[in-house]
Write a structure and sequence with these properties.
Blueprint: H1 9-17, E1 22-25, E2 28-31, E3 44-48, E4 55-59, H2 61-68, H3 70-75, H4 79-89, H5 101-114, E5 118-119
Antiparallel strand pairs: 1-2, 3-4, 3-5
Helix pairs in contact: 2-5
């Protein structure tokens, strides 16, 4: 098992989730016994800009989109969905802000991937 003192802070959170048998390898989180790949934690994602190595976290998109609506999507760079969300909020008197958070995670994740960002577990320096 990887020593948590040698990991980055965001990796320690993941290490605690997979402490029952997961190890961190170059391929990501792996099951120590079977060697199968473990899924990433569902609370958030990390993306790396390959041009400069900058890391951006997407944590709890449901909550932030529920609280801030289209402004959260704009802040994360998903401009087309931010405009759509804002345009839908006007005729529905804001009711669309109760529906859009269910899709916020996939919207933001897809937005980063389309802009060329790489998931942190797949990025190599």
């Amino acid at each position: 098992m990887s020593d948590p003192r040698q990991l980055e802070p965001w990796q320690i959170k993941n290490w605690q989730k997979h402490a029952s048998g997961g190890v961190l390898s170059k391929k990501g989180w792996m099951d120590a016994e079977s060697g199968k790949r473990l899924s990433p934690p569902k609370t958030g994602y990390r993306f790396v800009n390959p041009a400069n190595g900058y890391t951006e976290a997407v944590d709890k998109p449901f909550l932030w989109c529920l609280l801030f609506g289209s402004f959260y999507l704009a802040f994360k760079g998903a401009w087309s969905h931010a405009l759509i969300s804002f345009a839908l909020a006007i005729p529905t008197c804001g009711a669309s802000w109760l529906v859009y958070p269910f899709f916020a995670g996939s919207v933001v994740r897809t937005s980063y991937l389309r802009r060329g960002w790489v998931p942190a577990e797949q990025w190599r320096k």
